[in-house]
Amino acid sequence: MFDLLPSRSGRILVCGHRGHVIDGHENSRPAFRRAGELGASLCEIDLHMTRDGRLVVFHDDILDNTSTGTGLISQLDYAQIAQFRTKSRNGMPIEGQPIELFEDALTFCRDLGLGLIVEIKDKFEGTAYLEQVVGLLKKAGMFERVLISSFDYVVLRDIKRVAPGIRTMGINYHRLVDPAAAARSASMDIMNTDYPQFAPDLAEGLHAANIGVSHFVPRPEFFALRRGYGVDYLDMFDAYLRAGLIDMLVCDDVGWGVDFVTGRGLAVARLEPVK
Q1: Contact assessment for residue 35 and residue 268, using Cβ atoms and an 8 Å cutoff
Q2: CA dist 56 → 103, 109, 228 (Å)
Q3: Structure confidence by residue, pLDDT tens digits, 109-151
Q4: DSSP codes of every residue in 94-144
Q5: Radius of gyration of the chain (CA)
Q6: Contact 196/173 with Cβ under 8 angstroms?
Q7: Helix, strand, coil % (nearest 5) of the chain?
Q8: What's the number of CA atoms in the CB half-sphere (13 Å) around residue 246?
Q9: Phi first, then psi: what are they for 156, rounded to 5°?
């Protein structure tokens, strides 16, 4: 089970958002493989359930934007979805990949030595969905190498009840009045705050409650453009890292993320090999 508070020992987890995606792939084997080659600790993936109850790794609820198919995933059987291939969100020419079943992505990333953040995207009633997720994690030997994430904090609370010992991450877009209270309400182990809502007091409050701090930042070119207008968030981000306020960096460009972390004199936290 990997450390979710590595900032206390001068280390930080680097997570590839949907894998390493700047080459055009997302949520696919090339994205995961390249993330591992560039030094990622983990990859973030997204889950949706098909009409016949299979879990697939795909970000959108529809196939139209990043695959050769069309339609809602929830209205199609997996056999239909399996005929389609991925395509780049931004039109970059890439070789299409199969839309991965969750169990296959788990095995692939396990063998690469990567941990995973598994974001549950669907809305559902009851616990059968969560029980299926947990069962597949255990079958793949990935239960201790995964964080379950969601914007829905009820989901995070409920999966802890289904599987005590599983670790979770809440996704947060806001400047919270009491972030630790929000985290405790869902029994989460780490909270992610997206740019630009991150603030030192948010991180300090979470760390005081022994809760890890994750931060998603956009691609480097986003900051480069703003730097030309006299605003340099990366200077502040540098200070946050050096102050030990962040335990995990989530980014699209894993190579950039690893270089940014190591350039601050910090080490990228590595997961122990699967035995």
Answers
A1: no
A2: 9, 15, 41
A3: 999 999 999 999 999 999 999 999 999 999 999 999 999 999 9
A4: ----B--BHHHHHHHHHHHT-EEEEEE----SSSHHHHHHHHHHHHTT-GG
A5: 18
A6: no
A7: 35, 20, 45
A8: 30
A9: -65, -40
DSSP H/E element including 134: helix 128-139
The closest of 144, 119, 120, 122 to 18, measured between CA atoms, is 119
SS3 164: coil
* CATH of span 6-268: 3.20.20.190
The answer to whether 73 and 80 are in contact (CB under 8 A) is no
CB neighbours of residue 196 within 10 Å:
12
| Strands 55-57 vs 146-150: parallel, antiparallel or unpaired | unpaired
> What is the CA 87 to chain-centroid distance, rounded?
20
CA 172 – CA 233 distance, rounded (Å)? 19
Give the Å distances, CA to CA, from 71 to 52, 74, 94, 123, 192.
15, 9, 22, 17, 30
In the chain, what are the domain boundaries?
A: 6-268
Distance CA 2, CA 145 (A): 7
Q: Is 212 left (phi over 0), alpha (psi -120 to 50) or beta?
A: beta
Whether the predicted model's global pTM rises above the 0.70 cut:
yes
Q: Which uninterrupted H or E stretch holds 153?
A: helix 153-162
Asked if 211 and 182 count as a contact pair (C-beta separation under 8 A), the reply is: no
* Residue 272 phi, psi (nearest 5): -70, 145
Determine the Cα angle at 81 with ends 43 and 36, to 5°: 20
Span 217-257, pLDDT tens digits: 999 999 999 999 999 999 999 999 999 999 999 999 999 99
